[in-house]
Amino acid sequence: VSGRFSRFRGRVRPRNWAVMSVSQRQAWERQVIAEQEQSATITAAAAASRKANLKIWKQVATTIKEKGEVQGIIENFFLEKGIKLMDQAAVKKTNKRDLMLASADDDLAAVAALGAKFNADVIILGTAAAKPGNEITVAGVTMYKYPTKLVVRVIRTDSGQLMASKVYSETKTSTLKSGGEAKALDKLARQAAPKLLAAVVEAWRKQVNVTRDINLQIAGMTFAEWKTFRKTVEALRGVKALRLREITAGVANIDAEYEFTTQSLADEMTELKTPKLEVTEFNPNRLKMKVVK
């Protein structure tokens, strides 16, 4: 099928369209319409869910209370397991409301920019809540349920990448009709802390032990030098692929797929004879370099 009849609603018609019967053509068109309507419904639902999620996080970020019971218990558990937490001087430099909103809105650039102020590899953001629940009777004694929930997002600071998103919930039964929230949160924190640490460690392990994408920004590189550079670097052990994105204003932006650490790649490239390179900025996911003439 050629010309303006080659597509239907943006979808390419089947190659055997000319020999298809009228009923077969109509059936194919109905299927295309149904698939597009279903896709539109899913997209709209996802957008509505994202909007609702952001609204909740805005409320949380506005009324955030730091140094609550859950935070303290989780921090102590992490410290007991040998996890090094960032110092409070670094924490105070960042507006955590902005950080939470950027995370909830999946604004990775904003998260990375804010995260750069931390002396940490990972940021854990979360909110915990408890409320009085249903009344029950056990052996003639009136008891009250206190359901709790902890919502956590784990973010890598150098790239702003969301490493994990977890929800933990527990319910504590108490004889207190009111005022039992603190004990319920205590139980929640103690149950969630080891699960959260395991989730963070597993997410980190997966990222550091597989091929990673490293952004290379090399100042002073010409296209001719790029061709020499590509041929040499692709032969290095651990380099799976190099992709030139652009050369603009004398700066080559290159994506590299590499099996080992960024430090290892930097060491390898600074040993090259042609072109001779010098590192000007370094972080685990990006290398800024310049060609030494």
Gist?
This protein is α+β, with helices and mostly antiparallel strands and 293 residues long. The chain has helices at residues 22-62, 69-80, 88-91, 96-104, 108-115, 181-208, 223-233, 262-269, and strands at residues 7-8, 11-12, 122-130, 135-138, 141-156, 162-174, 212-219, 239-248, 251-258, 277-283, 286-291. The protein has a five-stranded mixed sheet with strand order 8-9-7-11-10, with helices on one face. Strands 3, 4, 5 and 6 form a four-stranded antiparallel sheet that branches.
Give the C-alpha Rg. Answer: 27 Å
**Sequence of strands across the biggest β-sheet:** 8-9-7-11-10
Q: What's the number of helices? A: 8
- What is the element string, with H for helices and E for strands? EEHHHHHEEEEHEHEEHEE
What structural class do the secondary elements suggest? alpha+beta
Helix content: 40-55%
How would you portray this structure in words?
This protein is α+β, with helices and mostly antiparallel strands and 293 residues long. The protein has eight helices and eleven strands. The strands form three sheets. A five-stranded mixed beta sheet has the order 8-9-7-11-10, with helices on one face. α1 packs antiparallel against α4 and α2 crosses α6. It starts with 6 loop residues before the first strand and ends with a strand.
